[in-house]
Structure of ATP-binding protein:
Amino acid sequence: MSASIVIGTDRSGVPVKVDIEELLATRLLVQGNSGSGKSHLLRRLLEESASLVQQVVIDPEGDFVTLAEPFGHVVVDGSAYDQAEIAKLAARIRTHRASVVLALDGLDLEAQMRCAAVFLNTLFDAPRDEWYPALVVVDEAQMFAPAAAGDVSDEVRRLSLAAMTNLMCRGRKRGLAGVIATQRLAKLAKNVAAEASNFLMGRTFLDIDMARAADLLGMERRQAEAIRDLERGHFLGLGPAIARRPVGVRIADVQTRARNVVQGLMPLPSAAGSDMESLLLAEPLAMEPVRRPEPEPAVVLEADELLEQIESTVPAAEQVEPPTEPSLFQQEETASQVAAILAEMAAEPDCTFQQAAQLFQDFTVRCRMARIANTGIDLAAFRRRFAMAVAGIPDESDLRWRDVLRIAAQVPDDLLAPFLTLAVAATEGMPCPDDDALATIYGTRSPGRIRRLLDHLERSGLIVVRTDYGGRRSVGIPELGLTTAPVAA
């Protein structure tokens, strides 16, 4: 399945899309000088993909906190919590798949790096069952993965660099897709930048940065001048999630804006000349005090309150009005749509080799695109329904499979698909699946694991394996009193 978003248009006005599913596997690097439109690009990417995937934003300037109200992101103020609380928040974010913005603008550089490192490392170290797909967007990445030592201690630099390296090099298998933005490629650690397969290069002027950008885009050095001529908000894009050849992109409009950003010019003060001089040089006691309203104190939640908020947060894209009681026809239609989606996923090559969390994310996206508001299927239920679909059982309501599913309730989730496949073959009198077929269904390349799997199911009393003198194997299901047709093992 392809879940694409439009980030802008090319020179001909043709929409330029980013394939989010491909981006999750291949990561993204954004580069451009200050004022080139990097934050605008990231904001467009976040807004358009908010309904498709969990998002975690490392925000050193507090620019992206405005995503909270329209899109349901939880804002975590990094300056309000200690290291243990940040780690606990990150773990809870992974568990509940909450989209969050980690605002670090209240911290100095060294504290920002420490906080981001603890946060990213906790996301990275989540248990295998919580490896849900997520976009991890890091703005001003050169701060967290510097190419050379700077004003911070070596300990902090190593800690932050290691966390960023884990994100970009090893995060994909854990569902974490790094999206990093930097003002200068020369200031970003090469081993971090090199792991991105997608690039959006904005305006830059220094020769060393243009040369590195040209190398990443596969352009000749003499073509690098084009990067210097890019207008604000224009980028050159390349990568499997964007385009196979460099394409110019004008980033489209966004719905939200950063806080306290002045757009354009402002009128100058009316006082000038001697009037301004008197204002500046007058004695403080002689000046008329200017009464300004007291700013409202910032509301900082306690760690326990924020944890509860993360647990109860539902992203804006998933918030729906309570549905009216559906008719029987509507219930049957929804069940039929869900069964069709599961069958479509089960028919895709190598689907069983993917993590259950990643498949569940894919399933929820497909349901959302089919306008199915509430399937009533959580991750645990999805594991069993997907195993049924792989085995060829479309729905639990089919009475033909009632006894098979009753027996399957004793089978662990990870063994369910092979067992159901054997039970279906026995019920329909089909040949016993061979080791290669069972290995594909189980999601392994090892024939030895299949032999151990069959041995475990037989010792559990769920199946009986029989091999005749001709070397042909058949599998029986004792509780059903049925057996598969024999086939060469």
Notes: Residues 326-397 form one domain. Residues 320-326 have pLDDT under 50 and may be disordered. The radius of gyration is 28 Å. The chain is about 40% helix and 15% strand.
